[in-house]
């Protein structure tokens, strides 16, 4: 790896750190680098201490290391938080904004406000000065930033664009001229040309839903899921989607079920507490066999927990939520590509098996920016599994819950071909009418549960990374994909025998493939962003495999590769 | 031509003599007289004795959860606005467990009809107080008598500017049929609160108790355009209980605001994954 730098912007909400961070992320991406950016923010609109971190590399990256090379400090807390880790880095600050008593290495004073006022007559351009200064330290080609700023501000008019570019250029020149060791972080530009995307997990889910032809989305806002709702809403008119903000999450999922029953592709988006309120309607989806897609972005609970932080703490809840037993499907994307393609897949599974399907994300995946290849919508197939009017016209009286060998009944929608469709949350007979006889209950319960066997066959096997017969297999699910891949790279380079097995199709587990791959593993280590090893429990319960050790973290922060390796050392695994 | 017979006859689980039978009769008649065929009609309901009604006539049915008859009704109406959608509930179901949905769908104003079997008691769970139970009514739970102020659904709806507010009586099927017809024909959210004697558990508000008190506003000078007068009328309860249409306010429906429905139903739209390609450029 010739280039691997981390730039961190720290400050209060409202200070514009996101503007700086996004501008830098886009600039690096445009020049052909791989970019990964994470956000840490508090549940408040102004103030607090927030950070935006951008990592730039010429290798594929999907994790944030703990080191920081350039810190743009807009508040004192950023410095306190990072100073210990700044072995070889630089802290850019403005002494008009924060006080630093002893300005020597690693501090580098850039008079951002003064430069903005001098060149543009207005200190609001100081954020562009900061972006420029960071690039100056890297002796990066300035034109990329100029292009990014032009795109970002073109709606606001030429004057604003010019001022931002002037401010950025002045910051850039200032850093190049005044920083003592010339081009300390100099990067060579990678050859591969752009055309890739820079995208956050939430936007990728929204795109996946649109590609799948979502027609109705009802939800109640809750961080960190809201981004999907707003992304779909922003494009709803062009894609013939109705987005409705429900009065609560109970209404949201019940509305989705009504729309789905009537034939629309429908989804909801929520997070932990919101999903708690949906659990009864989840069972309604189960017993009425009404397809539903539930996007669940996890944050640390219980109750309100840490609203803006990350955790994988809801898996066991999702697996068992709602009373009674019924089939459900849980998908957990690990990358933006997964977010896109698996969201589309979720709709097809929901329609095929007439069940609720979860897309489980978390704040880390939802809010982080990744570079990835352009998605290919031609790979998305919309499969509705609905009866045709002709098929339906041939039936005498339509049976919504007809007993079939697979357990899946042919599905018609109300108003189709002059027939009526009856769905019920009570136990019902084949026609959908209430039937509480024991014989009927046995038939119907078996019919519903049978669908799980068929569904299991559709579940994709886990993804293996690293040498096949390694001594240690690190098992992960969902958003830990990036950090675990990097851990494997680091440990292999240190001479350890380790690989990574990653699950995106979490429930029902693809049993055979899992057993085949893990059967010969000497040491299975599950790595999860929760306190109790929820996936490890599922894995042991569903297979007869033994998980040797859990590496866990539930402090609200995502995994850095270093933190996983530290835990492994502490546990004597390596 | 659609006839009442097209809606079929089903065996019910109701107590003989219950007011629910009359409401069922009125619903079937109203739908038949409006020429709606069963496949054009969707009935959603919650859970309760009243909420079983959709099972007792031939039509599309979504019998969901206790308190949740309205949300699926809205979802289905948006998905296919050509359906005639009626939500059927009880007073416990609609004003208690589902109170929030009631408030917010009055605000949303979808073109659906809400029929509340208001027996002022919980029937299915065997006689506990409901939000509309009278002060002082003793039950096995409310052992000292009800002391929470009864909810007045009509005043509440009018205060929220509900676009159609009415009350019927299960003891007058002909009048109730006409009310339900008006409610269905009204474009917007229409409330039909129906006084429904529960002969098994409500020994206070019986057929004769209601019959002695109800009168029809149409026979007087009530004008449903006047919100303040309607509000005053809605508070009349005791010696005399008004029936009929209290308040009508024609305003755009929820669906009217949804431009995507102008060219046809949502379920009628075909999707094309390739269309997202243009959105991808914004991430490049
Ligand atoms: C979530 C939930 N809570 C409680 C119940 C039990 N329950 C069923 S019906 C009902 C009340 C019924 O009263 P009402 O809605 O007035 O209908 P009625 O039976 O009087 O027609 C209750 C409490 C339930 N089914 N679901
Ligand atoms: S319990 Fe009351 S409301 Fe229910 S069917 Fe019997 S009489 Fe009617």
From TrEMBL, chain A:
Signal peptide: none
The keyword Oxidoreductase is assigned to this record: yes
Protein EC: 1.2.7.3
GO MF annotation terms: 2-oxoglutarate synthase activity
Enzyme kind, highest EC tier: oxidoreductase
UniProt entry tagged with the keyword Oxidoreductase: yes
Family matches, as InterPro entries: 2-oxoacid/accept_OxRdtase_asu (IPR022367), Pyruvate:ferred/Flavod_OxRd (IPR050722), Pyrv/ketoisovalerate_OxRed_cat (IPR019752), Pyrv_Fd/Flavodoxin_OxRdtase_N (IPR002880), Pyrv_flavodox_OxRed_cen (IPR002869), THDP-binding (IPR029061), Transketo_C/PFOR_II (IPR009014)
GO BP term, example: response to oxidative stress
Span of domain Pyruvate/ketoisovalerate oxidoreductase catalytic: 13-173
SUPFAM superfamilies xref list: Pyruvate-ferredoxin oxidoreductase, PFOR, domain III, Thiamin diphosphate-binding fold (THDP-binding), TK C-terminal domain-like
Domain (Pyruvate flavodoxin/ferredoxin oxidoreductase pyrimidine binding): residue spans on this chain: 208-444
Catalytic activity from the UniProt record: 2 oxidized [2Fe-2S]-[ferredoxin] + 2-oxoglutarate + CoA = succinyl-CoA + 2 reduced [2Fe-2S]-[ferredoxin] + CO2 + H(+)
Superkingdom of the organism of origin: Archaea
Keywords, ordered alphabetically: Oxidoreductase
Pfam families found in the cross-reference section: POR (PF01558), POR_N (PF01855)
Subunit structure and binding partners: Heterotetramer of the KorA, KorB, KorC and KorD subunits.
The protein, known as: 2-oxoglutarate synthase subunit KorA
Native source organism of the sequence: Methanococcoides methylutens
TrEMBL record, chain B:
GO biological process, one term: sulfur compound biosynthetic process
Cross-referenced CDD domains: TPP_OGFOR
Record keywords, A-Z: Iron, Iron-sulfur, Magnesium, Metal-binding, Oxidoreductase, Thiamine pyrophosphate
Domain Pyruvate ferredoxin oxidoreductase beta subunit C-terminal: from-to ranges: 198-262
InterPro entries: 2-oxoacid:Fd_oxidoreductase (IPR051457), OFOB (IPR011896), PFO_beta_C (IPR032686), THDP-binding (IPR029061), TPP_enzyme_TPP-bd (IPR011766)
GO MF annotation: an example: iron-sulfur cluster binding
Pfam families: PFO_beta_C (PF12367), TPP_enzyme_C (PF02775)
Cofactor requirement: Mg(2+); thiamine diphosphate; [4Fe-4S] cluster
Limits of the Thiamine pyrophosphate enzyme TPP-binding domain: 50-194
Name of this chain's protein: 2-oxoacid ferredoxin oxidoreductase
Organism the protein comes from: Methanococcoides methylutens
């Amino acid at each position: 790896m010739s280039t691997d730098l981390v730039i961190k912007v720290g400050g209060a909400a409202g200070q514009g750190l996101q503007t700086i961070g996004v501008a830098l992320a886009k600039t690096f991406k445009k020049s052909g680098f791989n970019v990964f950016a994470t956000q840490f923010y508090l549940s408040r609109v102004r103030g607090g201490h927030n950070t935006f971190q951008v990592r730039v590399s010429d290798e594929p990256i999907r994790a944030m290391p703990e080191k920081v090379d350039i810190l743009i400090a807009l508040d004192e807390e950023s410095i306190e938080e990072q100073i210990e880790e700044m072995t070889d880095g630089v802290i850019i600050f403005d002494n008009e904004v924060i006080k630093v008593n002893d300005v020597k290495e690693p501090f580098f004073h850039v008079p951002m406000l003064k430069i903005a006022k001098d060149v543009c007559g207005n200190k609001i351009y100081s954020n562009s000065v900061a972006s420029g200064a960071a690039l100056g330290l890297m002796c990066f080609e300035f034109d990329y930033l100029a292009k990014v700023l032009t795109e970002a501000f073109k709606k606001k008019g030429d004057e604003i664009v010019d001022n931002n570019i002037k401010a950025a250029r002045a910051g850039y020149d200032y850093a190049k001229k005044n920083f003592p060791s010339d081009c300390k972080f100099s990067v060579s530009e990678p050859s591969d040309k752009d055309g890739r995307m820079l995208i956050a997990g939430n936007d990728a889910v929204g795109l996946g839903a649109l590609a799948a032809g979502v027609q109705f989305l009802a939800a109640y806002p809750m961080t960190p899921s809201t981004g999907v709702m707003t992304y779909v809403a922003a494009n709803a008119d062009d894609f013939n989607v109705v987005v409705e903000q429900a009065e609560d999450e109970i209404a949201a999922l019940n509305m989705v079920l009504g729309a789905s029953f009537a034939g629309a592709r429908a989804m909801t988006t929520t997070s932990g507490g919101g999903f708690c309120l949906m659990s009864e309607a989840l069972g309604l989806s189960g017993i009425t066999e009404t397809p539903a897609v539930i996007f669940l972005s996890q944050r640390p609970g219980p109750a309100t927990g840490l609203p803006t932080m990350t955790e994988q703490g809801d898996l066991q809840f999702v697996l068992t939520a709602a009373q009674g037993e019924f089939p459900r499907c849980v998908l957990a994307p690990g990358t933006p590509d997964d977010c896109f393609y698996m969201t589309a897949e979720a709709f097809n599974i929901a329609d095929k098996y007439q069940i609720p399907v979860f897309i489980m994300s978390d704040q880390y995946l939802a809010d982080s920016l990744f570079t990835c290849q352009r998605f290919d919508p031609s790979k998305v197939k919309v499969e509705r599994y609905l009866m045709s009017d002709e098929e339906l016209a041939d039936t005498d009286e339509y049976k919504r819950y007809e007993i079939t060998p697979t357990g899946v009944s042919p599905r018609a929608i109300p108003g189709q071909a002059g027939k009526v469709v009856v769905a019920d949350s009570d136990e019902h007979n084949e026609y959908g009418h209430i039937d509480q006889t024991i014989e009927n209950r046995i038939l119907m319960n078996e019919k519903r549960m049978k669908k799980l066997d068929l569904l299991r066959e559709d579940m994709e096997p886990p993804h293996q990374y690293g040498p096949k017969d390694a001594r240690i297999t690190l098992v992960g699910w969902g958003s830990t994909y990036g950090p675990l891949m990097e851990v494997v790279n680091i440990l292999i380079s240190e001479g350890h025998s380790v690989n990574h097995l990653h699950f995106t199709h979490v429930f029902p587990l693809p049993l055979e493939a899992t057993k085949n791959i893990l059967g010969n593993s000497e040491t299975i280590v599950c790595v999860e962003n929760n306190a109790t090893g929820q996936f490890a429990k599922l894995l042991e319960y569903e297979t007869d495999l033994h998980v040797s050790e859990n590496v866990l973290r539930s402090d609200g922060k995502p995994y850095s590769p270093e933190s996983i390796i530290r835990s492994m050392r502490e546990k004597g695994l390596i | 031509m659609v006839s009442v017979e097209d809606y079929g006859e089903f065996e019910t689980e109701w107590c003989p003599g219950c007011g629910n039978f009359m409401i069922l009769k009125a619903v079937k008649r109203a739908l038949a007289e409006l020429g709606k065929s069963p496949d054009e009609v969707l009935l959603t309901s919650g859970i309760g004795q009243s909420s079983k009604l959709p099972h007792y006539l031939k039509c599309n049915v979504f019998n969901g959860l206790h308190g949740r008859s309205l949300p699926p009704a809205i979802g289905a109406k948006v998905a296919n606005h050509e359906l005639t959608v009626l939500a059927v509930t009880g007073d416990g179901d609609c004003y208690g467990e589902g109170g929030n949905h009631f408030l917010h769908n009055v605000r949303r104003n979808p073109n659906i009809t809400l029929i509340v079997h208001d027996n002022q008691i919980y029937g299915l769970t065997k006689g506990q107080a409901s939000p509309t139970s009278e002060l002082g009514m003793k039950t096995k739970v409310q052992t000292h008598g009800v002391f929470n102020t009864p909810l007045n659904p009509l005043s509440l709806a009018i205060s929220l500017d509900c676009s159609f507010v009415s009350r019927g009586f299960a003891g007058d099927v002909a009048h109730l049929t006409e009310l339900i017809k008006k409610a269905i024909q009204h474009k917007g959210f229409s409330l039909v609160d129906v006084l429904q004697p529960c002969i098994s558990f409500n020994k206070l508000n019986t057929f004769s108790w209601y019959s002695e008190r109800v009168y029809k506003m149409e026979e007087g000078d009530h004008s449903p355009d006047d919100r303040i007068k309607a509000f005053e009328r809605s508070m009349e309860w005791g010696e005399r209980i008004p029936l009929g249409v209290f308040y009508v306010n024609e305003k755009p429906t929820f669906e009217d605001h949804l431009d995507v429905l102008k060219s046809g139903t949502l379920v009628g739209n075909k999707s094309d994954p390739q269309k997202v390609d243009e959105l991808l450029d914004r991430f490049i």
